[in-house]
């Protein structure tokens, strides 16, 4: 167990279940809605934390009615299949998440690592740290952007916020003043868009969409406490990280790091690469930045080389 409270009430009937290890990947926080329809939002925190939270509130896992998944990632779908076996609860996800939730193969396809030379390293990593995500999950239904999900007195409002993944969805809790920001996670790491189905521009727009809703409280999947002070600034700083990365890449290109493989060896996104398989994600994110830099006319590609374009030059 952890040296911080495993769960805390953030609104009447709404409880934050904190992940282990400060909710760092591959752990993530969940929400438990202790209402007429007992609902878990995401299922990626330590299963003992879910069990203990429910027990402290007078329930057991087998009482659970529903799991709502914010997106298909391993640290979010987590123990959903395991819990579903015990409780026969329904599992809801975004339409675009279905394949990635249902099967491990579907998840690998949405990530895009299936044919990559780091595929086997990544599988070894998954089997070592989150073996349960290789189970098959039964999806009972889907939710849609802006269609409220009622839990009784509590209402969850899906805010489709693609970019991190195509299906990524934040949830307003009883309105938009408190938003479960999920993997618009406000960590120092910054935005993560390392799947083939991720999109940097969509991610920026999703952060702007959240800013437009002007929430007062933001709950991250990977910070142990909700952000209650200066949320707007935190979101703006988080958004700015993408531009900082872009500028760093341009600088590296100008210094002669003129291929993707050279750029990946001096990682821009990851402060350090934890295991070799993560070079796959770094590479994909660098490539996404390069696509944008080409579109914006800031670099061009010639025979696999990245050539800087001079401002205003022909
Ligand atoms: Zn994620």
Q: How would you describe this protein?
A:
The protein has 314 residues and is α/β, with parallel strands linked by helices. It is built from 10 helices and 14 strands. The strands form 3 sheets. A 7-stranded mixed β-sheet has the order 1-2-3-4-5-6-7, with helices on one face. A 5-stranded mixed β-sheet has the order 8-9-10-11-12, with no helix packed on it. The model has no long low-confidence stretch (mean pLDDT 96). The structure holds zinc ion. The site of zinc ion has 5 residues, from loops.
Name the hetero compounds present.
zinc ion
Q: Could you name the CATH class of the largest domain? A: Alpha Beta
Q: Provide the gyration radius in Å.
A: 20 Å
What is the CATH topology of the largest domain? Metallo-beta-lactamase, Chain A
Question: Which secondary structure elements does this structure contain, and how are they paired or packed?
Answer:
Layout: E1 7-11, E2 14-17, E3 30-33, E4 39-41, H1 47-56, E5 66-68, H2 74-77, H3 80-87, E6 90-94, H4 98-102, H5 104-111, H6 119-129, E7 141-143, E8 149-150, E9 155-160, E10 169-173, E11 178-182, H7 200-213, E12 217-220, H8 231-254, H9 260-265, H10 279-295, E13 299-302, E14 305-308
Parallel strand pairs: 4-5, 5-6, 6-7, 11-12
Antiparallel strand pairs: 1-2, 2-3, 3-4, 8-9, 9-10, 10-11, 13-14
Helix pairs in contact: 7-8
The structure holds zinc ion.
Please outline what is shown here.
The chain is of the alpha/beta class and 314 residues long.
């Amino acid at each position: 167990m952890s040296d911080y409270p495993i769960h805390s009430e953030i609104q009447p009937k709404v409880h934050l279940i904190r992940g282990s290890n400060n909710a760092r990947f591959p752990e993530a926080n969940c929400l438990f809605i202790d209402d007429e329809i007992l609902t878990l939002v995401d299922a990626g925190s330590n299963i003992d934390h879910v069990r203990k939270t429910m027990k402290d509130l007078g329930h057991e896992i087998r009482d659970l009615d529903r799991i709502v998944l914010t997106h298909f990632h391993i640290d979010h779908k987590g123990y959903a299949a395991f819990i579903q076996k015990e409780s026969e609860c329904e599992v809801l996800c975004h339409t675009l998440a279905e394949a990635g939730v249902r099967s491990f193969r579907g998840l690998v396809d949405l990530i895009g690592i299936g044919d990559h030379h780091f595929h086997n390293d990544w599988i070894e990593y998954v089997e070592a740290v989150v073996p349960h995500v290789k189970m098959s999950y039964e999806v009972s239904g889907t939710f849609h952007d802006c269609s409220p999900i009622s839990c009784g007195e509590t209402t969850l409002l899906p805010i489709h916020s693609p970019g991190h993944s195509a299906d990524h969805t934040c949830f307003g809790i009883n309105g938009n003043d408190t938003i479960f920001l999920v993997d618009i996670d406000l960590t120092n790491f910054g935005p993560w868009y390392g799947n083939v189905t991720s999109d940097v521009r969509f991610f920026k727009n999703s952060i702007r969409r959240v800013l437009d809703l002007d929430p007062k409280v933001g709950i991250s999947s990977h910070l142990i406490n909700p952000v209650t002070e200066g949320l707007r600034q935190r979101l703006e700083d988080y958004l700015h990280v993408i531009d900082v990365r872009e500028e760093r890449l341009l600088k590296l290109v100008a210094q002669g790091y003129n291929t993707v493989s050279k750029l990946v060896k001096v990682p821009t996104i990851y402060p350090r690469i934890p295991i070799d398989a993560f070079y796959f994600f770094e590479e994909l994110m660098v490539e996404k930045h390069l696509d944008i830099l080409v579109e914006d006319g800031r670099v061009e590609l010639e025979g696999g080389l990245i050539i800087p374009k001079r401002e205003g030059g022909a």
